TrEMBL record:
Gene3D superfamilies: 3.40.1280.10. The keyword Transferase applies. GO terms for molecular function: methyltransferase activity. It comes from Kribbella koreensis. One of its GO terms (biological process) is methylation. InterPro entries: Alpha/beta_knot_MTases, rRNA_Methyltransferase, SpoU_MeTrfase, tRNA_m1G_MTases_N. Keywords: Methyltransferase, Transferase. Residues 46-176 form the tRNA/rRNA methyltransferase SpoU type domain. This is TrmH family RNA methyltransferase.
Amino acid sequence: MREVRSRFGMSAARVRSPKDLKRQRRLRSHSCWDHLLIAPLWPKYGVNLGTLLRTCDAVGACLAVPKLPWVPDALAHGNTLKRRTCVHWTGHDPVRWLIDQKQRDNTTIVGVELADESIRLGDLPAARNRTIAVLGHERNGIPPDAIEHLDLVVEIPMLGTGASLNVAVAGSLVLYRLAGLI
């Protein structure tokens, strides 16, 4: 570790080296627990899928995506860790997939959307059972026929002028919260 002096008069922080971090973390990537999934079911940009795949590795989650023609290439390109990752293929009908998932025992489906009945991200509890976080289309959000299959809707408060965050940023924030890491 190397010391970093604070310019604010606080005690010096110790910066951990990559070797230190490796010793403190798990020895190998997680196996697919199927406990926490992020599901961008209406993807628009491949780069966002790659970012979400990286976040999945960081929090021990899996990615559920439709097998559109361009998605496998986007995931391969976005997998900067260059090792096998946990990906579930949902098929071509996202609403049908949601219905099937909801029928599984002890599964909570959380939608990330601006809605009257949404809770704030800070009030979202960590996942205690199998949880799927559903992300909508970059522009149109989660379609109305899918909203009715959600157990909970969460929104990310914003102070700026934009209406929402992109799918990768929103999904990463929600994953960290559901994983209990923030």
